[in-house]
Amino acid sequence: MIEVFADILCPFTHVGLQRLVAHRREIGANTVVRVRAWPLELVNGKPLAAAVVAEEVAELRAQVAPDLFTGFAEAQFPATSLPALDLAAAAYRRSTPAGEQVSLALRHALFEEGRDISSPAVLSDIARSHDLRATGPGDRATVLADWEEGRKRGVLGSPHFFVDDDGFFCPALEITRVENHLQIRRDDAGFQRFLAHAFPPTSVGM
């Protein structure tokens, strides 16, 4: 199993997960992904700024991912990811595949459909489409436990992937800021190293 500590609002995670699942589909692997909560509003002590994420999205589209973020709407960017992380935790309570599907669906709703995934109506719609009931207090406890586990395991930021004890921080991208301009490029060598750990031969379908 692949684990990744990430925030749903992180656009770099969206790119990494999309590349990961595309590769998994291409090779016919059966490895599942557990997306664990790394709530950046708690890590940083303040919510993510919509304008900052909008800049990151614009640069990702311009520099590495023109096929993603097609419906992103800065005006609909949520002030918190915690209710969406609760829903992902509820899905993982059902099963790891269900949790992965909901984690990806939440990111698709935010970044490809421009939906406010802190809205109860949007979350209810996503829950219904995956045959899930409402979240409960235990789901927020799971989110907070993930955050604590991430700190113990030395998570550097969102996304931080783990395969067994090997960690890979944002392996799909190299991100720098030069003279106040965000520069992003694909880290193909780093991503291939990550994939070699994530998909050993026994994980590939026949």
What structural class results from the helix and strand content? alpha+beta
Uncertain segments are none
* CATH class call: Alpha Beta
What integer is the average pLDDT? 94
Give structural notes.
The chain is of the alpha+beta class and 206 residues long. The protein has a single domain (2-203), classed as Glutaredoxin (3-Layer(aba) Sandwich), CATH 3.40.30.10. It contains 8 helices and 6 strands, in the order βαβααααααββββα. It has helices spanning 11-27, 40-43, 50-63, 82-94, 96-111, 120-129, 137-152, 188-198; strands at 2-6, 33-37, 160-163, 166-169, 173-178, 181-186. The radius of gyration is 16 Å and the shape is globular.
Set out the fold topology.
Blueprint: E1 2-6, H1 11-27, E2 33-37, H2 40-43, H3 50-63, H4 82-94, H5 96-111, H6 120-129, H7 137-152, E3 160-163, E4 166-169, E5 173-178, E6 181-186, H8 188-198
Parallel strand pairs: 1-2
Antiparallel strand pairs: 1-3, 3-4, 5-6
In short:
This protein is of the alpha+beta class. Helices cover 49% and strands 15% of the residues. Helix 4 packs across helix 7.
Keywords:
206 residues, alpha+beta, Glutaredoxin, four-stranded mixed β-sheet, two-stranded antiparallel ribbon
